[in-house]
């Protein structure tokens, strides 16, 4: 493993060719997210985005749980720093800059052009849901408990949950209830609103399935897969006409790849014709 992929709060490995496993690595703190973890996520996913060997990523939590959300100590220190600022306007700017830094860290996950599969177990609370909102595919073990905790903390979720999830949740009635109440919910409701796609009996089965899916994706044309993700994310954030214009421009260059010729030549019909 490259020394550039070593982080204080993340554990990165390459269990299969072109597949990278990223583990939140604060198990004694139940993978609560502090400033260092946010910064490490940004650096890690920006580096994996450019890493030639990386074609698919599995994101999980090391230890008993995925993540219990933002670290209370980090919040306390941030609040204390804000209190020390006397001027109201400067206090607002300080808070705005702090929120923006966290947003940029999780947006690095969302902007990563390599498919990301979240493998969720134990607890996925608050900022943990913000993080999985930035992933492409979400698998879970059956013991997972979820909660959109921000309302109980006196604020609106500001780093992913309310900004990305409304684009693809399938049941907005239940989703809004979960947001407004902060109540805990299980994998059945998580599937019902489209937050997760598959549930597995054990964490071991969960990781095996996530790895198998990542391995399958990694065997496909990286040009096609990355192009698909770029266009899916663009479509999520733009109107239909913009989407057609973007993909037209994108594919005018990407159609030059040799992957298309190799894929066509590998079809059974052409293989049979080549024998004639």
From TrEMBL:
Reaction catalyzed: (3E,5Z,8Z,11Z,14Z)-eicosapentaenoyl-CoA = (2E,4E,8Z,11Z,14Z)-eicosapentaenoyl-CoA; (3E,5Z)-octadienoyl-CoA = (2E,4E)-octadienoyl-CoA
Pfam families on file: ECH_1
InterPro entries with a match to the protein in the record: ClpP/crotonase-like_dom_sf, Ech1-like, Enoyl-CoA_hydra/iso, Enoyl-CoA_hydra_C
Pathway note: Lipid metabolism; fatty acid beta-oxidation
GO biological process: fatty acid beta-oxidation
Domain of life: Eukaryota
GO MF annotation list: delta(3,5)-delta(2,4)-dienoyl-CoA isomerase activity
Subcellular location(s) of the protein: Peroxisome
Keywords: Acetylation, Fatty acid metabolism, Isomerase, Lipid metabolism, Peroxisome
The keyword Isomerase belongs to this UniProt entry's keyword annotation: yes
Role description: Isomerization of 3-trans,5-cis-dienoyl-CoA to 2-trans,4-trans-dienoyl-CoA.
Database matches in PANTHER family: DELTA(3,5)-DELTA(2,4)-DIENOYL-COA ISOMERASE, MITOCHONDRIAL (PTHR43149:SF1), ENOYL-COA HYDRATASE (PTHR43149)
UniProt family annotation: Belongs to the enoyl-CoA hydratase/isomerase family.
Protein name: Delta(3,5)-Delta(2,4)-dienoyl-CoA isomerase, mitochondrial
Organism of derivation: Adineta ricciae
Taxonomic placement: Eukaryota, Metazoa, Spiralia, Gnathifera, Rotifera
């Amino acid at each position: 493993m490259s020394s550039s992929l070593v982080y204080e709060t993340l554990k990165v490995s390459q269990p299969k060719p072109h597949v990278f496993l990223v583990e939140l690595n604060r198990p004694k703190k139940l993978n609560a997210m502090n400033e260092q973890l946010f910064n490490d996520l940004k650096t890690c996913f920006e580096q994996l985005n450019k890493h030639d060997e990386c074609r698919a990523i599995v994101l999980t939590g090391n230890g008993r749980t995925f993540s219990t959300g933002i670290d209370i100590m980090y919040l306390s220190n941030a609040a204390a720093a804000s209190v020390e600022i006397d001027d109201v306007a400067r206090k607002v700017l300080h808070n705005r800059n702090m929120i923006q830094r966290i947003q940029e860290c999780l947006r690095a996950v969302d902007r990563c052009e390599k498919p990301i599969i979240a493998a969720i177990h134990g607890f996925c609370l608050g900022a943990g849901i913000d993080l999985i909102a930035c992933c492409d595919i979400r698998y879970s073990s059956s013991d997972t408990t979820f909660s959109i905790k921000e309302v109980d903390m006196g604020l609106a979720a500001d780093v992913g949950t309310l900004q990305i999830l409304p684009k693809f949740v399938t049941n907005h009635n239940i989703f809004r209830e979960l947001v407004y109440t902060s109540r805990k919910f299980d994998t059945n409701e998580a599937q019902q609103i489209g937050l997760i796609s598959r549930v597995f009996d054990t964490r071991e089965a969960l990781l095996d399935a996530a790895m198998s899916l990542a391995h399958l994706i990694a065997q496909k044309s990286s040009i096609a897969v990355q192009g698909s993700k770029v266009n899916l994310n663009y479509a999520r954030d733009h109107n239909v006409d913009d989407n057609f214009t973007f993909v037209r421009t994108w594919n005018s260059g990407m159609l030059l790849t040799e992957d298309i010729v190799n894929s066509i030549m590998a079809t059974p019909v052409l293989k049979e014709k080549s024998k004639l």
